[in-house]
Amino acid sequence: KELEDSALKTHNRYRAKHGVPTLKLSKDLCEMAQKWADHLASIKTLKHSPCKLNGESVGENVAYKWTSDGEVLT
């Protein structure tokens, strides 16, 4: 929860600099995203989610980085 709040606060600070409305955290969307992330981890691949929230398609950023020195990217 602390990471989510910190990320949202940072993102909204950036949005405010550009005069756009703030965002709020969606519990439903967070749960859906976590389930999808768990699924991707279980099948060891990356692809976009077919999930919908309130009948609307949801989008996400899917990224992958590999390095031989063991560096972790989050």
Automatic annotation (TrEMBL):
Residues 8-63 form the SCP domain. Pfam families: CAP. Signal peptide: none annotated. InterPro entries: CAP_dom (IPR014044), CAP_sf (IPR035940), CRISP-related (IPR001283). Transmembrane segments: none annotated. It comes from the Eukaryota. This is SCP domain-containing protein.
